[in-house]
Amino acid sequence: MDINCPNCKEEVSQVEIDCENCGFPLSGTDKEKSIFIGRQISNKAKIGDAKESQAKAKKILYVIGALQLANAFLVYGQTKSFDDAIFYFVLAVLFGVFAYLSPKKPILFLSLALALLLGYYAFLYFIDPELIFRGILWKIVFVSFLVYGIWNANEERELKKKHSFLNKD
Ligand SMILES: [Zn+2]
């Protein structure tokens, strides 16, 4: 005879010790069951936090993109160099695209954005070492948000790998 798992509501055979779908200890003690539920709630909260930090990283990428777009106009206004303006325009578009795609594959696109940002800073340093110190606090904030977003996306992936049931929502 089959019963429904009280945790995930999937149909499970009554002889099962743990639910095949979510791992709920069907034949465990009340204490084991409440520990399982508690852990599940904390995992869901962790995933919620991870999603929030990825959303912040996405916003930061849009800000970086907007700044590069402003740079494109500024540089063109100052130097009338079309090439320089195009350079910043391409950077702006790339950051915008990575931001837009980041919810689909956060680790990949946040890492690409971080690599591009670090590459850009390295390029600035190469042009003129003093440029790197201009707005250094913002640079640190941008890099930290991206690193934190990647770290959280990785945590989320590990949690979901361990508890495939959490993938459902
Ligand atoms: Zn279950």
Features:
binds zinc ion, single chain, 4 helices, mainly alpha, 2 strands, elongated, 169 residues
Could you please describe the fold and organization of this structure?
The chain is mainly alpha-helical. The chain has a domain of 117 residues. 70% of the residues lie in helices and 4% in strands. It contains four helices and two strands; from the N terminus they run ββαααα. It is elongated.
Computed Rg: 23 Å
One letter per element, helices H and strands E, the order comes to EEHHHH
The low-pLDDT segments are none
Beta content comes to under 5%
Helical content class:
over 70%
Count the strands? 2
What is the strand arrangement across the widest sheet?
A: 1-2
The kinds of small molecule bound in this structure are: zinc ion
Question: How far is the N terminus from the C terminus?
Answer: 28 Å
- Structural class designation: mainly alpha
- The number of helical elements comes to 4
Shape verdict:
elongated
Largest sheet geometry = 2 strands, antiparallel
On the 0-100 scale, what is the average pLDDT? 91
Write the layout of secondary structure elements.
Blueprint: E1 2-4, E2 11-13, H1 30-79, H2 82-101, H3 106-127, H4 136-162
Antiparallel strand pairs: 1-2
Helix pairs in contact: 1-2, 1-4, 2-3, 3-4
Bound molecules: zinc ion.
